[in-house]
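#lab-general

N.A. 3:47 PM
ok so I finally got the sequence cleaned up, no stray characters, all 497 residues accounted for. can someone with queue access submit it? mine expired

B.Y. 3:52 PM
send it over

N.A. 3:53 PM
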Amino acid sequence: MNQSAIALLNSRRRKSRPGSNGTLDLSKAPELVSMPSLNGVPSLKGMPSLTGISDWLQQLGHSDSDLDGLNVIHVAGTKGKGSTCAFVSSFLGAHGKRTGFPRRIGLYTSPHLVRVQERFRINSRPISKDSFAKYVFEVWDGLSLSGQASQAPRYLQLLMLISVHVFIREKVDVAIYETHNGGEYDATNFFPKPVVTGITTIGMDHVEQLGPSLENIAWHKAGIFKHGSPAFSAPQESAVTAVLKRRAVEKEVLLKICDVNPALPAEASALVADVQRINSSLALALVDTFLATKAPKEHSSMTLQDVHRGVEQFIWPGRFQHVIDGNHQWFLDGAHNELSLQQAAQWFAKSAPGMQSNTLPFVRILIFSHLSDRDGASLVQCVAKSFQEVGLRMNHVIFSTYAERQYGTVRNDQCLNPPQLAFSPELQETYVKAWKSIDPDVGGISIESTIEGTLNLARKLGDQDSNGMQTLITGSLYLVGGALSFLQPNPPDLAEE
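B.Y. 4:20 PM
back already:
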């Protein structure tokens, strides 16, 4: 039953992202209000994902009052959206255990790493396989999608509709939503009255869909601001801050920029990466506003104990994650743009030395894979430069593809659209040259055709030295998800709700 539900979802995947299309029919699209433009042309690529969501929800029988009852916390940004949402869930969970509110916390994020149910969480746990299948079939049948194609929701739109259906049926007290991509025309941006909205760090990413400039991207992200709902932002570049403030004025929204919250514990494994202090501080601002608005008066604020417990119980797979398997230490972060890759390299450089169990050094390995419309060679150079800046040398670098298993089998809920580009030998050689242009004296560089083969090679390199190895896996959430399917096929944090 679960496999059939996944198959239905996969049938709604599109083969590629839309590009610029001068003949695109936008008659059914939301109005293009004050979007920044390039040569007078709005920077919108393809039909907005928001199109059709409200109609489909009405078809499912979900009213505006049902949506208001979800008490939505909405988060957009470039880096740290998922972590911030997970911190919100963890802080609210700690407060709920002490006070009884909120009792049920919904969390919707993307993409998934190992299995699709990760996107739909109740109290930080994915919904069960049976519940997932039941809700997928209810939405599919409710929209009468059998045999339809052109008018049916696409993959991400369908996931969004399922999430709303799940949270309404599960009677959550709060629903935390991470945008898919962008904000203004994102499929998640149909909630008319979120309790509070938040913007994480904004940088140059998804330029083909949201660009071409940083200001364009910031404009899209700020699209989640709603009149009457307070908004908070992590510290931003001045150009981004200016756009956010202008959009806040347009939408008559009170916007506050968050500093690092002094209530956070000075020492905590979840906060080793400096950026997580920013993400958790933003999360606390969102939580404080939510509790002041929705919680019973006697329980309308966080205590210091709540904050520390929320940090202590925080788990977010694939982001600054550490997995230990004997003398093999794996550090995983799904960074896939320059800003996040710099942060991942800094986190590894800061964390790895403290994880050594003796004075003899580990073999240090980088596993990297990336395939998109970004300049992959520049990303490779970014990682190499970041290690150079912090004085850390990698003993070996392994470039992989997104193919997971050596015998070619594919998980049907693997979070991956077929790449438009191929992992050609030429591309991988380009990555090799890019690394050597920064670090010509690297101990060794290898190319592997599968993630499974890459992990086996890293283990072999570590076993050649009895001290073991420390391996950073980064460059793509697809790579990290594939690696976790081998390293933690049934991780404790994915125990079903």
